[in-house]
Specification:
Layout lengths: L54 E13 L10 E20 L5 E7 L2 E5 L4 E5 L4 E4 L4 E5 L6 E10 L4
Antiparallel strand pairs: 1-2, 2-7, 2-8, 3-6, 3-8, 4-5, 4-7
Length: 162
C-alpha cells in the first residue's frame, strides 16, 4: 500500500451518501497484488449482478483512533477510527452492508459514485461532500472519474481494527 498525508479542504457543507475513497498514487496495483482491506469480510455481500469486487484501491492509511469506552461506557471495546483512502479511476469497493459500523466519508479530491440498496441508484459524491453510513446500509462504490479519488473515512469499529 502507498500512504499519503491528508490535507482536508472544508469548502462545502457535508451532504448525504456513504462510503470510502482517497487519492495517493497514480497507477492501479497489479492483478497479482492483494487489495488493501477496506470492508470487513463479514460485511461483504453477493447480490445478483451488482459489482462485488474491490479493485483499484491505491491506498488505505490509518490516521488514528480514539477509544470510546472512557467517554461512553456502553461503547467499551470500540473506537472512533480515521482513515484516508485512495481509489484509482475504474476502481471499486465491493458491495457490503454496514453491521454496527456507522461512518462517514468526506471526499477530499475527485468524485466517487455510490450505489445504495435497495434500488442501487447512482449518487455522485463530489470533492467537499460527504456520505453518511448507518447500520443496515448496503452499498458499493466506484470511481467513474478519470483521476484518483481521495477521501477521509471516519467510523466506529472494535479496538485494534486496522
Amino acid at each position: 500500500m502507498l500512504w499519503c498525508s491528508a490535507r482536508p479542504r472544508l469548502a462545502r457543507p457535508l451532504v448525504h451518501g456513504a462510503g470510502v475513497l482517497v487519492l495517493v498514487a497514480y497507477g492501479a496495483p497489479g492483478l497479482s497484488h492483494p487489495q488493501p482491506a477496506v470492508v470487513p469480510p463479514q460485511e461483504q455481500l453477493n447480490h445478483g449482478q451488482q459489482v462485488t469486487v474491490t479493485k483499484g484501491v491505491l491506498a488505505v492509511k490509518r490516521l488514528g483512533g480514539q477509544p470510546l469506552g472512557p467517554d461512553f461506557p456502553t461503547l467499551r471495546g470500540r473506537e472512533l477510527r480515521l482513515r484516508e483512502l485512495t481509489i484509482a479511476p475504474g476502481g471499486s469497493i465491493a458491495l457490503h452492508r454496514h453491521d454496527q459500523r456507522p461512518g462517514v466519508a468526506y471526499v477530499l479530491e475527485g468524485t466517487m459514485t455510490e450505489r445504495r440498496g435497495p434500488g442501487f441508484v447512482p449518487q455522485v459524491i463530489h470533492t467537499g461532500e460527504a456520505a453518511f453510513e448507518g447500520s443496515g446500509v448496503s452499498h458499493w462504490w466506484r470511481n467513474e472519474g478519470t483521476t484518483p479519488a481521495r477521501a477521509l473515512v471516519v467510523d466506529i469499529v472494535p479496538l485494534e481494527t486496522p
